[in-house]
Amino acid sequence: MAIYTCGHTTPDSDSICSAISLAYLLNKIGREAIPARQGNVSPETQFILDKFGFEAPELKTEFAGCELFITDYSDRGQAPKDLDAATVVGIVDHHKLGDITTSTPLECWIRPVGCTNTVVKEMYDYHGVEIPSNIAGIMMCAILSDTVIFKSPTCTELDIKTVRELASIAGVEDFGALGMEMFKVKSAVEGVPAKELILRDYKPFDMHGKKVGIGQLEVIDLAIFDSVKADLQAELEKMREDENLHTACVLLTDIMKEGSEVLVSSQDASIFEKAFNCKLVDGKVWIDGCLSRKKQIIPFLEPAFA
User: By the 8 A CB rule, do 74 and 91 touch?
Assistant: First the structure.
């Protein structure tokens, strides 16, 4: 039986690229594997796949009876709904440890680095498997995306070292310029429906029994949201009500100014305000220096629900 390698719902570039890079590795060490995805490919991810000659992985949302190697998450809220009917054989991730449990032993590679593909690179090194140039290219791009071209506080020296090694394998001389190309693609939001924008990089969480949804949009100029901000706020309200969320928010991250404007819809906005010692004005607040949902939002917001 083939193992499916698959990332979280509403997959980002790391989720898609780690599914591909991990599947290749597993196949090389004699474990048949197929990369998959749970949702649509974002414009940035499509740019990366096109750049290095890949088709998007198979779209698959049901895994009952399958073996699954999870990439880029360990929270049940980001897993397929039939996870309990699948056999989880492994997890490779760079987030906080989530609430997925298994009935059998599994392989875990979880490291506090900026990107899952940095961990996958360590797996290649461990198994002594050579990385093809096109695989190296998508791994490199995923790390550049997740670390915001090394600006994110999640970025480590290992991420930087790994990008340099992968760039050499991929034959990319100026990975910084390629990273900026990716973020220009990310910044193209004109004409995209508000809900699609929020869900482009969106993750659900259970925070002490309260359902919370957090999206993030990283762009090179926050001004591009001026004409759609009201639509985003209205869609957040609708999503919160439709999905019975306590809080829904989206980070509008300006990678050049290195900060985020956060739009918030909540049953009790004082929880968000307490978490960040701030005051929301019309459901919005600017948080200077905030680039990472994983390191600068969740660790503060989750305890506030306790």
Answer: yes
- 296 and 266 housed in the same domain: yes
Q: Is 189 within a domain? A: no
Residues 25, 77: one domain?
yes
Distance CA 103, CA 288 (A): 43
Domain boundary among 136, 163, 184: 184
Structural domain harbouring 275: 194-304
Asked whether 260 and 294 are in contact (CB, 8 A), the reply is: no
pLDDT of residue 259: 97
Closest by CA to 272, choosing from 302, 230, 244, 251, is 302
What does the alpha-carbon distance between residue 214 and residue 72 come to, in Å, rounded to a whole number? 16
**Which residue from 282, 290, 289, 242 is spatially nearest to 264, judged by alpha carbons?**
282
Residue 203 has pLDDT above 90, yes or no: yes
Closest CA to 64 of 81, 77, 89, 39: 81
Tokens 């985020």: give the residue: 260
Q: Quick one: 158 and 234 in the same domain?
A: no
How many residues make up the chain in this entry? 306
Phi, psi of 186 (to 5 degrees): -60, -30
Question: How many structural domains compose the chain?
Answer: 2
Q: Pick from 4, 8, 5, 3: which is nearest to 215 by CA?
A: 8
Looking up residue 150, the CATH number of its domain turns out to be 3.90.1640.10
Q: Phi then psi for 251, rounded to 5 degrees?
A: -90, 125
- Tell me what percent of the residues of the chain surpass a pLDDT of 70: 100
> Do 82 and 119 reside in the same domain of the chain?
yes
CB 8, CB 72: distance < 8 Å: yes
Give whole-number Cα distances, 203 to 2, 55, 133, 160, 262, in Å: 27, 24, 31, 26, 15
- Examine the domain organization and report whether 128 and 204 are in the same domain: no
Per-residue confidence band for 188, with pLDDT thresholds at 50, 70 and 90: confident
